[in-house]
Write a structure and sequence with these properties.
- The protein is mostly helical and 153 residues long.
- The protein is 84% helix and 0% strand.
- It contains four helices and no strands.
- The longest helix has 54 residues.
């Protein structure tokens, strides 16, 4: 069975390939270069950052890379929408695929990010609680060391 990371690493990569191909057609249609460049950068960065997340060394690093990937995916959606809303391009099959695939991937990866964030938060608070207990134990030991007989100050 393919892991979540492997499956979505492949899907984001395939999306990046399709974005590159789409940008080539945009250049042929004389779409302004800055729009093509931004879509190309954010679309490929989405895949690159998800790939980096899948190779993360810790949950914190995984979470951070997912955050960046989601930002890039969301930016890609903005550029794709801008192309259609300004009527620079028509909403053809390529546009529809890019929009729906990017939107779906952003939603899925956002859900995973939220769950990882909750797990990190729960771990933080359970560690903090453990640390508080350890601090209380340390204080009790210190107090006993300072005054081994609490009944006789």
């Amino acid at each position: 069975m393919v892991s979540f990371n492997e499956k979505y690493k492949e899907r984001t990569y395939k999306l990046a390939v399709e974005i590159v191909k789409y940008c080539v057609t945009l250049k042929e249609q004389k779409v302004p270069y800055p729009i093509i460049d931004q879509l190309l950068r954010s679309g490929t960065s989405f895949a690159a950052n998800f790939r980096a997340a899948s190779e993360a060394r810790s949950d914190k690093e995984y979470f951070a890379k997912l955050c960046i990937a989601i930002e890039e995916g969301d930016e890609s959606l903005m550029w794709i929408n801008l192309l259609a809303d300004t009527e620079i391009v028509s909403k053809n099959d390529a546009y529809s695929f890019l929009f729906s695939e990017t939107e779906e991937l952003v939603k899925i990866i956002s859900t995973v990010k939220r769950k990882v964030g909750e797990r990190l938060e729960n771990n933080y608070y359970s560690n903090k609680k453990t640390n508080n207990i350890m601090n209380e134990i340390d204080e009790m030991i210190y107090d006993n060391f300072k005054n081994p007989n609490p009944d006789n100050p």
